[in-house]
Amino acid sequence: LNVVGEFDGMLTLFQKSTAIELDPDASLDMSDEEFVRITTRCPSFTHLTVFQSRSISDKGIIRALMGRASMYAVSLSACPNITDWTLTALGGHCPRLAKLSIAKCPITDEGVQVLASKCGGLRAVSLDWCDGLSDATLDALALNCPLLQEFSSAASCNYTLNG
Hints:
By secondary structure, the protein is an alpha/beta fold. Helices cover 31% and strands 20% of the residues.
């Protein structure tokens, strides 16, 4: 089951879930500790989606991703406390990552370079509205991710024609 239920205002997960999806209602003010507690209740998840969290940070994401070598897809959107540290952790803990979507998070070329060098199996990457990226991001993905089939980067104006 890929279902998140609610009981007395608390999120509950079915232990056999392969996906954890937190929408703004669930994650807006969720602490890192609460987030890690949720992810530990679902030991076999391979898909993670966090949307519009003001409070979940690199610390929570990194703790949740430790030991997740089979992680397949991660989507983080509009999370101002998610930075290059999360990308570095994804590279270190999730070598089988195939799909990555990061939108409106303060990541830079350096984080993407580390991730690309360790997750060569990436097939789809979306880096929408991440203003800290340049041609170095495109180079890192092109050189390290030969299976890449989909790439999007809406509203990023730091790329040049050379990239």
